[in-house]
Amino acid sequence: MAQAEEKREENHVLLVAFSSQGHINPMLRLGKRLAARGIHVSLATTEIVRHRMLKSSSAGAADHVTGIELLFFSDGLSLDYDRKTNLDVYMDILGKHGPSNLSALIKEHYTSPKKLLCLVTNPFVPWVSDVAVEYNIPCAMLWIQPCALYAIYYRCFNKLSAFPTLTDPDMVVELPGLPSMEKEDLPSFVLPNNPFGSFPKLFSELFQGMEKFKWVLGNSFYELEKHVIDSICELYPIRPIGPLVPPTLLGQDQELEDASVDMWKSDETCIEWLTQQPPSSVIYVSFGSIVVLPAKQMEAIAMALKNVKRPFLWVVKPPEFPTPDGAGQLPSWFLEETKDQGQVVRWSPQTRVLSHPAVACFITHCGWNSMLETICSGIPLIAYPQWTDQPTNAKLIVDVFKIGVRIKKEADGNISSEVIEKCIEEVMVGPAAEQLRKNAMALKAEAQKAVAADGSSDENIRLFVEEITCDSCKKDGLPNVGNLSHEGQDKVSDKGV
Ligand SMILES: O=c1ccn([C@@H]2O[C@H](COP(=O)(O)OP(=O)(O)O)[C@@H](O)[C@H]2O)c(=O)[nH]1
Ligand SMILES: O=C(/C=C/c1ccccc1)O[C@@H]1O[C@H](CO)[C@@H](O)[C@H](O)[C@H]1O
User: How much is the pTM?
Assistant: First the structure.
């Protein structure tokens, strides 16, 4: 036991993630890249994750993911509490109980916590940096959305730029390194009508106290977001180290195992079905793990899929708790009327679906993990964003990455099936569609280059490992330098911001 503990503390990094699959998996993949450079890695998250992992698989334990040890602490709520519907209460209780429960976990598992090289946290659990201070351990943040979102929030919550207000809700926002943004392009948490008070509070504290983080790493790559990454480098730099997606999507060794957790059991039969479809023919539709679409919007999508008469694969994840009037459910006529045209599953093996040659395009809510997986698969997107970062991600897809189109809402906030049908034709037929596919393939190649040996992301990981393991850096404290793998940020390291 004493020997195991000694090993755990030697060259060890502890990752701490919020409980959602889209937050844990990029952290685990970062862990895998650190482990490949000789670092011992554990990941701590809340008990609800262990519960979901055990429910989704036949395995009797949830203690390791490809060499990364998993540790769990309580968020202060019972396992059957509906966290999604009571978001503000959840974030509040997590913020109150998380720090002491994580601190107790560290005490229990590490005899000398001070020896930990670093704690790495993500944005929804920013209080991890206070636990790091308690134990005198350096702290890094893995930013799990586009670097654009990091720059927007940094400027908004430090009041460096003007954003919409109740008196001027329609103002256009102009920020360095980004296109002009209207209110429908901005993250929902910065808008005056955002109903979730916990997030502006959390982000204000986070972005006004960034000095607690010695490093900010980003799940993105320099070549994808260079203008906005350069634009923030003199304020508080972010070092892109992604895309943190399965190795198979990055053209890496097919034998390399992915580091990820599955909170829902995926239906593998859709892969057999895809294999029977013509190349580049299938419309893949999914809105991720959290979004539940109102019945009217489900109806519009169903009608559009039926009318375009193309094969489709639609993920309809049953809501975990009861929803109002048919939200998240298929219209009653749909399965019968499209039975020879497509498949509906409750949860798909998404990364295998996106890289399948039969898939032509993806109608998506624009969660950042889904977007990165699509970029790495080289296919175009149809954006239907809902909340948080998704509207801005949609703006990036259309106006910056130029790999897709966006479903425009009607004045009453609904969508029409005709508009969806038009979007499908736009990404599948004609010269504009061909250009989108070309752009998507070019970004896929850039993503592979970034993570390959000596690529921009690989170099940033190397630098991070060098800095967390370097004794004199630990003692003297590190300057917060940006991405040193390209010229734009060299001046930052000279100044030692
Ligand atoms: O049927 C599905 C739908 C989604 N995902 C995975 O769930 C994650 C969703 O993360 P994202 O950030 O896109 O959205 P969120 O679900 O967090 O809103 C991605 O890694 C997807 O590959 C999946 O495996 N199967
Ligand atoms: O994964 C989430 C979690 C949101 C959540 C769930 C329950 C209670 C509070 C919050 O959000 C997704 O994260 C992705 C990465 O940050 C992001 O790109 C997606 O848009 C979010 O849906």
Answer: 0.94
